[in-house]
């Protein structure tokens, strides 16, 4: 049986330097301590113990800990060691280890907690510590063999006193989670947290993607191709440029999702040019015909789109170059993607909502090709490592990109802090797999259906 790791959240302190009860401070419509508990509740911890002291009654009135054992530390004024001991006192004989979490780390995510647990279960080291950018952080796991030693600690030092005595049996686990370093001791810390994690600090696509004055951009993958295309189209239009949105395969009618555009053309490419000269619309959506049964607009051949680009009639042409049946992730078939030869940029999109789901037809389009490219099996859990293979392999996400075209990776659907972190882990997996696999110029972690979708940026 896997070793049981219990989470002990230390939240009894007086917050002297903060000059207010930091456990109750609001962060994105929720108290900070509630964030920590909620993440623990979603993790692989076998149970959760919360140690309260200062303002216990007020905390319990404002928060909900349905799955936790709440213990009061009446001696909390004597330092963190008393809370540590109070938490240990709630453990049972079958509990193999304790993970000590701080009650003021709202950016910590579930995947980090689970990664630490898995590493402990595999190595069974005396101490397991997360490391981000070569800096040690929290939470820390202590094996049962150290419980008696921890119970002898006094004052405000916590469990760090054990580190030097057991330096030869410490497991340092690299994580892609800055949250392990961020706790809130002062009001300045809290204000910096709010500033750094304010959605207003996200960026628009054109703030970070270095496009030229005129481009033919092909968009491939799954999990947000069309939303990426129309986000770009509207950003270009807002700057006064003319944009053509089209496809080499098929694209849903823009009215289906309420996409903003100025004119819809159905017919051959010569009529597209003629009507554009007449109407001077900012965003034109065009295709050869509309299929009412599928709700899709059928597109043009690649050389027809090359001809449209060569005419210079549009500042930017955005092409949906393959299909994904609205699934978050796909691998290209032999005949895909259908990228025009003159494409200057290929944008590869993956929906991060696929992470943690099984490899099956409900999540993956082109299942056989996906399994081949990623060396995986049906039913395997989709992980950052599997996505890294899909992105880096020659027959993967950026297949058939013209030799001189830029490549932009967009990891979309980053709707939670955890998925943002998982996106970062995916990018690091590619970085660590060798230069030949890091075959793109820019990687973005995005929540595409927002005014400023770019959350994180990595340039290469």
Describe, in plain words, how this protein is organized in 3D.
By secondary structure, the chain is an alpha/beta fold. The chain folds into two domains: 5-197, Alpha-Beta Complex (Spore Coat Polysaccharide Biosynthesis Protein SpsA, Chain A), CATH 3.90.550; 201-459, Rossmann fold, CATH 3.40.50. The chain is 29% helix and 23% strand. It has helices at 32-41, 56-62, 80-88, 110-123, 147-150, 161-165, 187-196, 205-208, 225-238, 254-257, 269-279, 302-310, 367-374, 384-392, 417-431; strands spanning 5-11, 47-52, 68-72, 97-102, 127-132, 135-136, 140-143, 170-174, 215-221, 243-247, 250-252, 263-266, 283-287, 289-291, 296-298, 316-320, 329-330, 345-351, 364-365, 406-412, 442-446, 454-459. The protein is elongated.
What's the SSE blueprint?
Elements: E1 5-11, H1 32-41, E2 47-52, H2 56-62, E3 68-72, H3 80-88, E4 97-102, H4 110-123, E5 127-132, E6 135-136, E7 140-143, H5 147-150, H6 161-165, E8 170-174, H7 187-196, H8 205-208, E9 215-221, H9 225-238, E10 243-247, E11 250-252, H10 254-257, E12 263-266, H11 269-279, E13 283-287, E14 289-291, E15 296-298, H12 302-310, E16 316-320, E17 329-330, E18 345-351, E19 364-365, H13 367-374, H14 384-392, E20 406-412, H15 417-431, E21 442-446, E22 454-459
Parallel strand pairs: 1-2, 1-4, 2-3, 5-8, 9-16, 9-18, 10-13, 10-16, 12-13, 17-19, 18-20, 20-21
Antiparallel strand pairs: 4-7, 5-6, 5-7, 11-15, 14-15, 21-22
């Amino acid at each position: 049986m896997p070793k049981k790791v219990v989470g002990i959240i230390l939240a009894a302190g007086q917050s002297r330097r903060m000059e207010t009860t930091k456990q109750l401070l609001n962060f994105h419509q929720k108290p900070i301590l509630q964030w920590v508990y909620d993440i623990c509740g979603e993790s692989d911890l076998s149970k959760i113990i919360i140690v309260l002291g200062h303002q216990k009654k007020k905390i319990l009135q404002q928060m909900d800990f349905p799955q936790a054992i709440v213990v009061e530390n009446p001696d909390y004024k004597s330092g963190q060691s008393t809370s540590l001991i109070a938490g240990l006192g709630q453990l049972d004989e079958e509990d193999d280890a304790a993970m000590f979490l701080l009650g003021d780390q709202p950016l910590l995510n579930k995947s980090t907690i689970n990664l630490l647990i898995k590493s402990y279960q595999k190595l069974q080291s005396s101490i397991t510590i997360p490391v981000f950018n070569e800096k040690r952080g929290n939470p820390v796991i202590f094996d049962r063999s150290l419980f008696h030693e921890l119970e002898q600690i006094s004052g405000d030092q916590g469990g760090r006193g054990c580190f030097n005595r057991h330096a030869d049996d410490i497991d340092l686990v690299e994580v892609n989670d800055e949250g392990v370093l961020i706790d809130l001791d002062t009001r300045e810390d809290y204000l910096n947290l709010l500033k750094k994690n304010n959605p207003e600090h996200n960026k628009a696509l054109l703030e970070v993607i270095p496009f030229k004055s005129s481009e033919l951009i092909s968009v491939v993958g799954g999990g947000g191709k069309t939303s990426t295309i129309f986000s770009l189209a509207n950003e270009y239009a807002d700057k006064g440029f003319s944009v053509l949105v089209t496809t080499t395969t098929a694209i849903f009618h823009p009215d289906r999702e309420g996409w903003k555009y100025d004119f819809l053309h159905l017919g051959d490419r010569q009529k597209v040019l003629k009507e554009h000269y007449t109407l001077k619309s900012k965003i034109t959506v065009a295709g050869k015909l509309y299929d009412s049964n599928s709700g899709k607009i059928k597109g043009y051949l690649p050389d027809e789109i090359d001809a449209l680009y060569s005419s210079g009639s549009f500042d930017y042409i955005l092409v949906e170059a393959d299909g994904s049946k609205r699934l978050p992730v796909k691998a290209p078939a032999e005949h895909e993607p259908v990228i025009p030869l003159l494409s200057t940029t290929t944008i590869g999109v993956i929906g991060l909502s696929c992470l943690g789901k099984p490899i099956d037809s409900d999540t993956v389009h082109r299942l056989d090709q996906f399994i081949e490219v990623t060396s995986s099996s049906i039913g395997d859990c989709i992980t950052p490592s599997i996505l890294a293979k899909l992105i880096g392999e020659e027959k993967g996400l950026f297949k058939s990109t013209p030799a001189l075209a830029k490549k932009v990776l967009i990891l979309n659907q980053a709707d939670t802090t955890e998925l943002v972190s998982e996106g970062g882990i995916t990018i690091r997996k590619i970085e660590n797999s060798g230069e030949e696999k890091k075959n793109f110029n820019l990687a973005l972690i995005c929540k595409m259906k927002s005014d400023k979708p770019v959350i994180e940026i990595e340039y290469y």
